[in-house]
């Protein structure tokens, strides 16, 4: 038996023209040999490649069915469609039964007779209709989702096309490898399945018949003959390199054995097993999934077993039965009609007719696939009808084409013509050039190194938009206008002398070690990258640096703070301030009291935050101005002739005093501490206190006496910037 493919049986047999049977040639003196060339291939093929090609490319329908059913997950689609239909059907059943009346327009509901008829109809059938509609919708949604969802979100039509091409290539490769596996390991596989070498008695009985049939069919070689111990069922199966017959065949008449061998030799010569093996290989996952339930039903033939197996494996069984096998069966049927003509050509038509009339099949299979394929053989009556039409005599000369070896075994020809090979070469050259060009583009512009180099190049060009485009997180709410002004402002220094010293990639993630110069120092950073999920032009997947811009932590929230000459918003306004890697020049506000020295903000690549710390300092002129104001104030206080000058930092605490005079012996040395950009606390340290002398007379019991006293002098207060001037306010004014 050849390993046919599955295709739906046709209601009528293919038209077989009336054929003349050319007389068989007399037996040759030398017996045919066993196989030729690679893997004992049949004769008539210039090379093993032609033999494999002829079988692989013959049944495109079976290959297409196996490919679609397996690689588009039809069993999964059926399973999801069933459960989706069941779920939607239950929802529709209740929704239709409970809400059908509400869907009737009020006008129809109020109409005589019609309204009552509609309400009665919907109340009794609304749930059923809703359930049927829900099941149909759920089934369709579940089925289509499995077929469509894997191809959605690929970034355009090109990834879909390339994915489909890759799937086809994978299926074809698996099919070819499986075919080679079946051909090369066929002897071992048959031995494992129970076949054995014929004994000397069996060989003496069957070998001459097989060789005689081969000579009559014009075959210079025969396949290897193996036996299977089955004394009840007369069975024969053809493989790529072997013909396996059961021991029950030994009891059959010689002419029926000859008809049987003629049939199997045609299967062997036309490479039907190669075709079947390739179809199985293309759908290998589905074939393996189908093997288990088929083995269970074959090993335990019971209705209960069949029901349980079907309950668990029905998606696979239905897919194989109604998709793969029907498409494959067309080639199988054609192969059976063709193989029957082998008995016509070898002169054993009557024996073949008796076999077909007496038996349901002489080619039962051992595996579930074989049995399924054998079940698609044409009905025996149609095969008998084809034999009768092929052996009708008396046809007018030239009307019917005779059955000949040349017609039965078409010459496969070379692997390809010169023009074909030239076209294949040109296409291969174009494909290689195109693939090479795409690879060069991918290597130059879309590898991880290119993303790192592009990011630092954008910083060197002061292009904030391009730099953000190389980051996975571009900062939601980032003021891109401000960021662009910061990069283009004076004082910005991008990283220079950038060098990617190492890069390690793990799937869609990569880690790069980058050396660079920043703030006149050589530094190193470790950056992580991720591969883009979306493609460019539908072909190229680039890389991005993980993370986003660097947050700026600033302790200054006052107006007037600038980076690279660009004034920053106060901390409570707008989105958070972020920076791109580089060195920034920061300046703060200045007034009559204080000034802010220029500071440097370093934003290192790979860091998450940078710090801006501006510290205002007193202006020397402001200190001198405060000191002058304090001295003038003290001088005014010293001019007063009272014991306690109001608002002054000194007083006399003795008894009643007259003719009081004050004299500043030593002015205090003040200390100023900024409490803000425009205010400072004025104090007098203990070690720099001044001295004031008070003199006068005191009256005690009517007697006046002069006095002189020295006291320490301290001054406290607040100095503030008032426009272009500094104002001192003594603490005693509070």
The domain count comes to 4
> Can you give the helix content as a percent range?
40-55%
* Proportion of residues in extended strands: 15-25%
Count of discrete alpha- or pi-helical segments spanning 4 or more residues:
21
Spatial gap, N to C terminus: 117 Å
Average pLDDT taken over every residue = 80
CATH topology of the largest domain: Zincin-like
Describe the protein's architecture and organization.
The protein is rod-shaped and about 170 Å long. With 734 residues, it is of the alpha+beta class. The chain starts with 32 loop residues before the first strand and ends with a strand. The longest helix has 44 residues. The protein folds into 4 domains: 85 residues, no CATH class; 237 residues, Zincin-like (2-Layer Sandwich), CATH 3.30.2010.10; 166 residues, no CATH class; 111 residues, Roll (Nuclear Transport Factor 2, Chain: A).
């Amino acid at each position: 038996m050849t390993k046919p493919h599955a295709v739906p049986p046709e209601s009528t047999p293919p038209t077989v023209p009336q054929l003349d049977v050319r007389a068989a040639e007399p037996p040759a003196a030398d017996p045919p040999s066993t196989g030729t060339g690679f893997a004992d291939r049949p004769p008539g093929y210039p090379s093993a490649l032609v033999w494999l090609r002829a079988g692989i490319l013959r049944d495109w329908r079976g290959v297409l069915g196996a490919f679609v059913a397996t690689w588009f997950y039809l069993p999964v689609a059926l399973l999801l469609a069933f459960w989706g239909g069941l779920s939607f059907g239950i929802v529709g059943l209740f929704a239709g039964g409970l809400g059908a009346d509400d869907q009737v327009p009020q006008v129809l509901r109020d109409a005589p007779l019609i309204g009552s008829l509609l309400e009665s109809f919907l109340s009794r059938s609304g749930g059923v209709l809703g359930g049927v509609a829900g099941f149909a919708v759920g089934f369709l949604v579940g089925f289509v989702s499995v077929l469509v969802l894997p191809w959605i979100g690929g970034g355009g039509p090109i990834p879909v096309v390339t994915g489909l091409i890759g799937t086809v290539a994978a299926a074809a490769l698996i099919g070819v490898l499986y075919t080679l596996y079946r051909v090369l390991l066929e002897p071992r596989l048959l031995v494992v399945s129970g076949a054995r070498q014929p004994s000397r008695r069996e060989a003496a009985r069957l070998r001459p018949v097989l060789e005689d049939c081969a000579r009559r069919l014009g075959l210079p070689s025969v396949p290897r003959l193996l036996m299977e111990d089955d004394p009840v069922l007369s069975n024969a199966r053809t493989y790529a390199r072997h013909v396996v017959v059961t021991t029950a065949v030994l009891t059959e008449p010689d002419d029926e054995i000859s008809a049987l061998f003629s049939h199997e030799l045609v299967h062997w010569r036309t490479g039907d097993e190669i075709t079947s093996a390739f179809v199985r290989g293309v759908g290998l996952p589905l074939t393996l999934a189908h093997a288990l339930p088929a083995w269970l039903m074959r090993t335990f033939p019971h209705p209960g077993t069949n029901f349980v197996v079907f309950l668990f494996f029905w998606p696979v069984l239905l897919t194989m039965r109604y998709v793969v096998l029907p498409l494959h069966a067309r080639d199988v049927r054609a192969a059976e009609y063709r193989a029957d003509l082998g008995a016509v050509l070898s002169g054993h038509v009557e024996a073949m007719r008796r076999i077909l009339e007496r038996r349901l099949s002489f080619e039962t299979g051992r595996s579930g696939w074989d049995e399924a394929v054998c079940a698609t053989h044409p009905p025996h009556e149609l095969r008998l009808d084809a034999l009768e039409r092929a052996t009708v005599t008396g046809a007018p000369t030239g009307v019917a084409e005779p059955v000949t070896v040349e017609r039965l075994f078409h010459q496969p020809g070379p692997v390809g013509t010169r023009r074909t090979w030239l076209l294949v070469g040109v296409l291969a050259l174009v494909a290689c050039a195109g693939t090479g060009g795409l690879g060069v583009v991918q290597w130059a512009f879309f590898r991880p190194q290119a993303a790192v180099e592009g990011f630092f190049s954008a910083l060197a060009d002061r292009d904030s938009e391009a730099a953000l485009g190389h980051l996975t997180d571009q900062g939601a709410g980032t003021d891109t206008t401000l960021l662009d002004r910061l990069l283009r402002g004076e004082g910005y220094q991008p990283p220079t002398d950038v060098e990617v010293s190492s890069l390690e990639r793990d799937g869609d993630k990569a880690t790069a070690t980058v050396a660079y110069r920043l703030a006149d120092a050589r530094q190193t950073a470790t950056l992580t990258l991720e591969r883009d999920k979306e493609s460019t032009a539908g072909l190229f997947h680039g890389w991005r640096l993980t993370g986003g811009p660097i947050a700026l932590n600033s302790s200054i929230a006052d107006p007037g703070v600038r980076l690279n000459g660009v004034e920053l918003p106060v901390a409570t306004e707008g989105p958070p301030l972020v920076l791109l890697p580089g060195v920034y020049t920061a300046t703060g506000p200045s007034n009559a009291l204080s000034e802010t020295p220029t500071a440097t903000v370093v934003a290192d690549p790979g860091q998450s935050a940078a710090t801006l710390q501006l510290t205002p300092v007193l202006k020397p002129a402001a200190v001198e101005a405060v000191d002058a104001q304090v001295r003038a104030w003290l001088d005014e206080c010293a001019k007063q002739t009272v014991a306690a000058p109001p608002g002054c930092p000194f007083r006399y605490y003795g008894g009643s005093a007259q003719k009081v005079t004050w004299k500043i012996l030593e002015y205090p040395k003040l200390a100023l501490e900024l409490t803000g950009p425009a205010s400072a606390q004025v104090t007098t340290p203990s070690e720099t206190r001044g001295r004031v002398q008070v003199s006068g007379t005191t009256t005690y019991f009517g007697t006046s006496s002069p006095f002189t006293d020295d006291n320490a002098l301290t001054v406290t207060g607040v100095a503030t910037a008032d426009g272009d001037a500094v104002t001192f306010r003594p603490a005693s004014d509070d």
